[in-house]
Amino acid sequence: MALTPSNMIELGTKAPDFKLIDAITNNVFSYEDIKGERGTVVMFICNHCPFVVHVIDEIVRVANDYRVLGFGFVAISSNDIVAYPQDGPAAMWENARKNYFTFPYLFDETQEVAKAYDAACTPDFYLFGPDDRLVYRGQLDASRPGNGIPVNGRDLREALDNVFNSRPQTMIQKPSMGCGIKWKS
């Protein structure tokens, strides 16, 4: 597994829109459909990445803790499923059910959405405020497989708390690290 950092796009960037099929319900969702009143978290994940597997329980906990406070959550998988069939829609459905996803898990077949967000790795997290402007991008927390640091979602939780309480975000935002998105050739 090659360690790839997320691209730290400019804060204030407007959330790119999308229309993608949810692997759980087979419904089409747009950014507007999943947007939360307080803010919106867009996550790029996949099924097989050991970095995602390491934090998936905390991702679900964070979504459950904050969606009741008015935040929207969505996960998007953009990997090339020809080269990585374990990341295809049927496996996405199984993964979402196994891990009790309470948010849509969208399939970005063309990879255009990942490109629009400048996503680089899985997991990759983007938090947009109520005005759909980027206020946080980077890591869930400092835990990585094998580094001994507990998974607690600290960085993303702090960013969500700052939005909820109308506090300024820290300018020290660390990139996420994970498997590179599997781009089509």
TrEMBL record:
Residues 9-165 form the Thioredoxin domain. Gene3D superfamilies: Glutaredoxin. It comes from the Bacteria. Signal peptide: none annotated. Pfam families: AhpC-TSA. This is Thioredoxin family protein. It comes from Dokdonia ponticola.
